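Much of the work behind modern protein science is quiet bookkeeping, done one molecule at a time. The fold becomes a row of whole numbers, each drawn from a learned catalogue of backbone shapes. The protein below has been through that process, and both of its lines are reproduced in full.
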Amino acid sequence: MGNPGDFSLLIVDDDVLTLTSIQKDLEEEGYCVTICRSGVETMELLKEQPYDLVITDLLIDEIGGLDILKWVKRENPETVVMILSGHEDPTLVIDALRLEADEFVTKPYDPGEFIFRVRNCIIKVETFRAIRKAEQEYRRLASAVEQLAEIIIITSCDGTVIYANDAIFTVTGHSKELIIGKNLKEAGFRISGMNSSTEDLWRTVESGKVWK
């Protein structure tokens, strides 16, 4: 897990003792913690900036924990939400999970277990970050590949084309939409306007010699 100080946590509870106790425990772990005592104030904070983890009591005021959960998952799906509750009603747990709560903790709780669950939530945050970074890198590489003058073709083991860049049309006269999903050694595409080296490569691809 990364440096706890790199993660922003918002704690919401109308009970001052609970709020300050959670704040103390999490700040001792190194987390950057913001506290809030009302649902109304919480919504204002969430609209100003996103948080990595929101830990909210289920019953607060006119805007409760489930309302906060619904808003967060709609507006900032990557934000992880932990619900706290002093009630053991299983329907409340089901409602929270149905609304995509990431954790549900019943009060009173064991401090050690609570910190363990917070760490699990942070691991989810790190996973979201890693996925977002990978998607950004994929888009960057995909854009670069599409702009290459050389043909890029990716096939399955049997020779079926699963990807081709835009250069395929310039070099072969065939659009990538026509080629993708086709087995080149069975489709019999005609070759036109290629230089000798590209023609040799294309004939190799068509022949299936590179496939096992």
Remarks:
- DSSP finds nine helices and seven strands in the chain.
